[in-house]
Amino acid sequence: MGTASDVLKTFKKDCFKGKNKKVFIMIRDVRKDVLDLKKKKEGKSGNIQIRVHTNDDKAPPWYVHGYAIPLNNLGLDKPLKKRKMLDKLNNVDGIIDKETDTLLRKIIQSYGRIQYGGSRNKLKYKTEHFKKQKDFFKVKMKSL
Q: Which residues of 23-50 are buried (b: 16+ CB within 10 A; e: fewer)?
């Protein structure tokens, strides 16, 4: 078994492959090395909360990096187009699974609406409050 950073990368890759595909919603960026990783199942529906511990001084010791939600909980067997998928995630009225419904409502209430993640992957999304932190040392190096 590799480091916690490698485990996080392989978990994200596994979310997007195979029969049990999952939608990955990022809450906060991981800037530094991941020292430890915890995956916690949210109820019986299979939703997974990913908590990380990093060596970042500005971040809290443990924080929620994201959530992985199976497509079956959204009432889908394969991913939809990006716009329809965003509508499905932000308008939770059509979701049959009660635990997924309450989880998505909690995410939207706490972190804002869900947006497209910026990659080519149809299953990777982020919230409105998600901000990628800049490395100020690199910014200074470019200005010199």
A: bbbbbbebeeebeebeeeebeebbbbbb
Q: What is the pTM of this model?
A: 0.79
For residue 1, name the pLDDT band (cuts at 50, 70, 90): very low
Q: How far apart are CA 135 and CA 112, in angstroms?
A: 25
- At 40, list the tokens: 């916690």
- Give the start-to-end residue ranges of the domains of the chain: 4-143
pLDDT recorded at residue 61:
80
Nearest in space to 24 (alpha carbons), one of 35, 10, 36, 34: 10
Q: CA–CA separation, 82 vs 108, rounded Å?
A: 18
* Single-letter residue type at 31: R
Q: What percent of the chain has pLDDT over 90?
A: 0
Check: CB of residue 124 under 8 Å from CB of residue 117. Answer: yes
